[in-house]
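Assess this:
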Amino acid sequence: MKKSTVLLVILVFGLLTLWLETAWMWAIEQVALFLLAGWCVLTLGPVRNLRGSERMLPLAGIVLLCVVQLVAHTTVDRWETTAGLYTWLAWLMACLAGFTALSDDGEREAFLLNAEIAGVAIAVLAILHRTTSHGKVFWIFETGRKTVMGVFPYENQYAAFILLLLPGAFMRAFRNTPHRWSSVAGAGLMVASVVSSSSVAGAILVLGETLLVVATVSFQLHWKLSRHIALATGILVLATVLGSVSGWGDMLTDLERRNALESRRLLTLSTIQMARERPLTGWGMGTWTEVYPAYARFDDGAFDNAAHNDWAQWASDGGVGMLLLMAAFTAMIVRPAFRSVWGIGLLFVLAYSLIEFHFQERPQFGCFFFALAGLLLAYGKS
């Protein structure tokens, strides 16, 4: 079996089980990623295949930062920071597996196509779940929520998942590939599912991503922009019709809320204050929920499980060093993201993380993200 196939199976397994809150499911994916990364390294071949791997150094630096926090006793909770260490190590292994197993152009394209197919399948499932499952995954398993989007209990993280895959579907739709028209339908379904989810920020970002991808592909192929705009408009019209099944009413209700982002603003301000207290060492990876109550600026009776701003929380947990490492990683993927077009989705997710917590819960999503990042870095070698 090819390493790329094994990687895809591991990632899909993680996605299909991320709604489960049991730690052992995440542990299975971690172990699988460690074994796959070891297999990839042992069969790497010529040293030249490591070209471009220096772009993974920021992730390795974050793993080292977790170790330093534990050794220097600067974390306020060693258990949570140890869990954070293993999470970031798994994400590094996912990135390494994507980089080494998918450096071949043919395998890379096949992997992206299969990932796109999986994304469309989850999008169809999400639309059906939204309207018929009453918060039950696969219509059987209770999640404690009124609605679920396929296997995602949280609609904004589902929107981030679609943001990762949507540029690839658009890219195939705009080019004369054998899968062109199926990609058109797939892209329409993906956008429709985000509209159906009632995620306002997700829908806005999907629209912005669509416009940016259209402009980027038109520039690269030297085609008239009007040709791509017409195709993109058709996809969005299809998405609007399908998304109107249930999403518009909830989305408009959410837009009518006054100060919809006020709680996120206050959470971010508190988290920035936390970061200022320990700018060099941070409070410890994974310790935000323990430290935050002392800095809270409001109390609405709900448990705050994250800062709703990954970047601020990274600064709080890991100090300025953590923030700089993630900024460096982001900077390294910008050029290959625009060269490949499909990699633009990673940049949108990182931008989305300014008002969400995509990397704080459900670490299986992080595995999918960083595996695609490794794939993008492999693309950037050529």
Q: What stands out?
A: The mean pLDDT is 85. Residues 111-257 form one domain. DSSP finds 15 helices and two strands in the chain.
